[in-house]
Amino acid sequence: MFKNLFKKTKKVTEEVVYAPVNGEIVDITDAPDPTFAEKLLGDGIAIEPSDGEFVSPVNGEIINIFPTKHAIGILSEADVEYLIHIGIDTVSLDGEGFTAHIKQGDKVKVGDPLVSVDLGFVASKAKTITPMVITNEVRSIDKELNQQVSKGETKILTVHL
């Protein structure tokens, strides 16, 4: 009966993060928005998407989806906070071209659908490059840059806690 009470829990020391969309990974400093390029919201990567199907990059919980559906906050099982900001200047679209498949409080697994985006429409009105940043403090981040990635499959970050 008391066996589980005194069992040691293994401390998580790193988390693997997968691509949230198909496309090409670039350094966050190449994002065409100083808020992201200067890492004011946190460090991470940016992705130039090749399609508009965004999925969860980690197992966790949706802690925020903006009413405009262009930005999603996820708290991972390792207590790391991720912000996926779909495009630059997309807040002005007021949700047009975006279809959310999740809501705040939903539990997600790697590869679960988050948002579908009409990429052609968004590209005609804003930039499609998508920053993904870690908004809380971590020890370090290993990045897999300048490569083509497949959503839910390609490792893009290793976060050291």
UniProtKB/TrEMBL annotation:
Protein known as: PTS system glucose-specific enzyme IIA component
EC number: 2.7.1.-
Residues of the signal peptide: none
Cellular component, GO annotation: cytoplasm
PROSITE patterns (UniProt xref): PTS_EIIA_TYPE_1 (PS51093)
GO molecular function, one term: kinase activity
Localisation per UniProt entry: Cytoplasm
Predominant location: cytoplasm
Limits of the PTS EIIA type-1 domain: 33-136
Keyword Transferase (UniProt): yes
Gene3D superfamilies reported for this sequence: Glucose Permease (Domain IIA)
Any single GO BP term: phosphoenolpyruvate-dependent sugar phosphotransferase system
Entries under Pfam families matching the protein: PTS_EIIA_1
The entry's keywords: Kinase, Phosphotransferase system, Sugar transport, Transferase, Transport
Entry keyword annotation includes Glycoprotein: no
